[in-house]
Amino acid sequence: SNATVDERFWSNATVDDWAKEMAGMRIIVEKYANLTDNSVVGVRAPYLRVGGNNQFTMMEEQAFLYDSTITSPLSNPPLWPYTMYFRMPHRCHGNLQSCPTRSHAVWEMVLNE
């Protein structure tokens, strides 16, 4: 295994890689912030590096409700949050991004540039 993880790792991380990182972080945050109400329900990928279908599959499996990683080009009006049930209402924006290509039962809190 690679001792260092750089931003490129997250573009091709497996569902299990994503689960270890995000569900693991949720456990740590809940423990040390003394959260007992299951209120950690969203994720933002490291380096804003979207993890494609694997990231969003993990989110469904781990009961995350929303992601806030995907960016969209500036538009007027700006985009509102949308579900990933259907195609994104904008192109996959940014260098080397791996946007999901399948339907996922999660929300995207899109970052408007």
TrEMBL record:
Which molecular-function annotation in GO is an example for this chain? Answer: hydrolase activity
Q: Choose any GO biological process term that the UniProt entry carries and state it.
A: carbohydrate metabolic process
InterPro entries xref list: CE4, Glyco_hydro/deAcase_b/a-brl
Tell me the domain of life: Eukaryota
Q: Any idea what this protein is called? A: Uncharacterized protein
